[in-house]
Amino acid sequence: MNVIKLELPGLGIMAGTLSGLCQAAPPLGCFPNCEDELLIGVNLSGPSTAQQRRQELQLRDGDAIFATRAFGGFTIIRPTPVRFLGIRVRRETMAPFVGKLDDFRMRVVPHDNDALNLLVTYAGSIDYDRTLRVPRLRQLVAAHFYDLIAATLDVTHRGGTFREGQGVRAARLQAIIADITAHLFDQDLSAVAVSRRQRVTPRYVHKLLEGAGLTFSAFVNHRRLSQARDMLTDRRLAHCSISSVGFAESGITRLRRADCLIAEGVAA
Q: Residue 25 pairs with which residues in a beta bridge?
């Protein structure tokens, strides 16, 4: 078991790997410190089974479970290794965003839910070491989480439209940046290609980057130059020619692992 725990204003975050155990959330009133919370568990990879009263739900890769203790305690059984993200937030904190959730029963949010994916993307993009040291950042990041949780609830609980709060925009920006980085040396890298993968409009891609003081072309060029600089100064790639790195940086071709890239994880 390898787990980290983090605290932000109004919410707690857990992440890591669990295996061969049963997590139990006791019903309200069971213990003095048993708070009335909305609990979110995301299976980043691996299967789990969630149970509450007579209800049993199966979670697969990328699925999440949203639950409260309004209908009693619940358990999550993880028989095999699971990479997970867990978030707990007080129901009274979420009330201004989504109401009281009095009729909220445990439910699975499928892996293809856009709002859920943005929540996971945002949670993975935060520099928590820096955030936890700066009170103003802590408040901002917590507010973004509230927006993203509310957006996911709107889609899954009420069948509503996608909320476009600050948290959603911040998460979409992180998703777009991650998409650009993952396809940095694609010959057809463009705002249109990114927007198609992210299921938004090209104008929206430009708008989010402009809101962060960036333009699409300048950001791509900066990332490519930065990548090329890192490759040129990496001793493990000392036998690669400058021209081959230059070709990769310009996006004309990809460097083949068999030719130059030795260490796993260097972008090809």
A: 74
